[in-house]
Design a protein that fits this description.
The protein folds into two domains: about 45 residues; about 55 residues, no CATH class. It contains three helices and four strands; from the N terminus they run H-E-E-E-H-E-H. Strands 3-1-2-4 form a four-stranded mixed beta sheet.
Length: about 110
Amino acid sequence: MNDLPPDLPRLRTLETWLALQLDQVRQRITAVERQEQERQQGIDARPPVPDWVLERGLNRDSPPATVHVGDCPMAGKRGQGVPRDVALRALAEGVEACGHCRPDSELGFVDG
């Protein structure tokens, strides 16, 4: 069974239509590849996740309010990455440890 038209004019019309469709598919492939490349570049350009986060209060001059493990989803936008010794010092000075990620346990901090 042959699904193609038998005459040349309709075959040429079909050929033109298929060429246009193929061109559209290739353009879309190029666009999607570009988007994927840009997405990957964005992922590669992200700064590394800090090991520890010190979250401040509501204003810029507030003292630290909470210590988090670096990838804690509960850490707010007011957090700043800090090294281990700063996180330990903050806990020793009475800054609250996040109840979700438990940085005090991760750091081996024993109160007292």
